Description:
Layout: H1 23-40, E1 44-47, E2 50-53, H2 59-73, H3 75-101, H4 111-150, H5 155-178, H6 187-207, H7 209-222
Antiparallel strand pairs: 1-2
Helix pairs in contact: 1-2, 1-3, 2-3, 2-4, 2-6, 2-7, 3-4, 4-5, 5-6
Amino acid sequence: MTGNSPDQPGAAPAYAAAGSRYYPVFVAVFTALVIISNVTATKGVAFGPIITDGGFIVFPLTYVIGDVLSEVYGFKAARRAILLGFAMNALAAAAFWVTVALPAADFYENQEHLENIVGAYTQLIVAGMAGFLVGQTLNAWTLVAIKARTKEKHLWARLIGSTAVGQLGDTVVFCAIAAGAIGISTFRDFAVYLVLGLIYKTSVEVVLLPVTYQAIGYVKRHEPSYQPA
């Protein structure tokens, strides 16, 4: 056990060692989803009056994986994945800007379009990384704090409670910075973007709760270092 939960009275909840075989797989998928969602978020999307961005496609899945990491491996292991995702996003942004600065070939006609996308991506990277750090950290801490009291019981409460807290922090921070990057200029559109984004991302996690349950149960059963308290 890693023993990396917040201090609480009574026996410590169980966690698997972060060096176990499934941990790096979850971290790799987690990091890839964060980068993909930031790229797709450069496009503002409207379904009638509903305003969002392309990141809605995969971003909620990062919280599903974040829940698995926090529940099975604990806060420190989840935080390690969050910081790695943050670093890889920064590397992606730097690589894009270096690509923009490189001299274009005579036959390349999309330099201006690339600059526009990279410019929007950079603002979204700042928004995404700020929201990501706040939201995922709150999500992980809340889940682990609840687990310290409930141990192996009431997994649904940990998942829903941590999602509500994490998504609130993430969505408020992200939308406040990202709105301008995707062309949102009125308070009404911003309010719709914020509220619907929060409702959508939280709802997706609730709908995916059975999947999250199965993933957590599978990893707990197959991680040799996980021993339920």
